[in-house]
Amino acid sequence: MNQHLTEDELILHYYGETDADTARVESHLESCAECQSAKEKLHNVMALVDSAAPVEAPIGFERIAWARLEPALDRNARSGWRTFFWFPQWALAGGVAALVLAAFVAGRFTGGDGSAPASPGTVVAHVDPANVLQAAVGDHLDRTQMMLVELANADVDGADVLAGEQGRAEDLVAINRVIRQSALQSGDAQVVDILDDLERVLMEIANAPANATSNDLTDLQSRITREDLLFRLRVIASEMRQRNQNDREAGDRLPQRKMPTS
Amino acid sequence: MDERDPSVVAKARSGDRDAFRALVEMHSRYIYSLAHRMTGNAQDAEDVVQEAWLKAHKQLSRFEARADFRTWMHRITVNCSIDMIRARRHREDAHDPSDLEQGPLSERGAEAQPTPERVAASVQISDRVNDALGLLTALERAAFTLRHVEGMSIEEVGAKLGMKTSATKHSIFRAVKKMRAALEPFAQS
């Protein structure tokens, strides 16, 4: 008797994601009553989950939703600014701005002579502007990668997927430009290169015509594939993470600098 | 105004406030349920509904007229929910429903007709499933919902949530195991 299947394997099998293991898993299930029983129990639980009705909105919610929304629409129309700031594109935009500012400040005040203007006795950690930029780039690349993966895998019949991503693409273009400028100033040609390519694709998404068709989506998907964008993104994002990790480890080994009391 | 009329979307696209209101009133209950399933609580679901409509309003001119409006709103709502979950990832606060300790459902027969007992049982099943979902962390819930309900592959779920595939797998494994532990006593054998 082969070794019994693990619960994880049964879950992957339920979702059809056993990949290369499918034949082995199915062959085992055919010959093992115990695992077959475990599989049936899992399927019964999932059937129970599927049978549950979704949580209903409170009575009159549609009117409450409108009453809450209408003033926000008016505010949007007047100011052009969005009401909620908890969404990551804003958090990220703010974060990037803060990081770029931090990089600037760090560059100004953590010079090689150690004569940073700080309060006497203040303990300051050394901040390398390059590390700050790396962190911002890594985060931005991850988010861009998520969107491109979604578009690359979108059903070509559903061209409205483009419309659904345009707002996000606009936000990413804005962030892309801020980071590109910083990368240009720090002389990171590899990052500038990928950000240039990303900007072109993000602009294409952000400016897609209102009546975008499945052909537009197919063109975009071809471009993502043709330029190996996802692969290049993964490589550079991975490099960024590795660089950050190395820098963190190096930073952990460095003693904190105590500012001289004068 | 008949919200089912496709021209409502066209009117809303051209800036007709009454038409947009009709769309909001038509679809808000649906997107609330979707947002609640993703986020797991009423307050977050309401915030997601609000944000989804603001996004829709902003992007309405780009909506492909031949596409299905509800499908478009569904996608926006899922994205808004994910954005919220990612932004609040640190708030991993599973809670502990008490009524999962109650006995098995008494009425789960094979009657075809929805008798009052059967309706009551179905409500109980939904409550138990929703309670079990409440045992999941925000991330586990999002990963499970995207995989189980939205039908995304594990790799796609990872991409959506900004997680590695291996971490996504483990989130889904943990979610299913928790659901199984909570619901197995009530599942038909």
Largest sheet of chain A: 2 strands, antiparallel
Indicate the structural class of chain A: mainly alpha
The CATH class of the largest domain in chain B is: Mainly Alpha
- The name of the CATH superfamily of the largest domain in chain B reads Winged helix-like DNA-binding domain superfamily/Winged helix DNA-binding domain
Structural class category of chain B: mainly alpha
Rounded average pLDDT of chain B:
80
Order of helices and strands of chain A: HHHHHEHHHHHE
Quick one: biggest sheet of chain B? none
Head-to-tail CA distance between termini of chain A = 77 Å
Which percent range fits the helix content of chain B?
Answer: 55-70%
User: What is the string of helix and strand elements of chain B?
Assistant: HHHHHHHH
Count of DSSP-assigned helices of chain A: 10
CATH topology of the largest domain in chain B: Arc Repressor Mutant, subunit A
Portion of residues in beta strands of chain A equals under 5%
Tally of domains of chain B: 2
As a percent range, the share of strand residues of chain B is under 5%
- How many beta-strand segments of chain A? 2
Please state the second-level CATH architecture of the largest domain in chain B: Orthogonal Bundle
The outline of chain B comes out as: globular
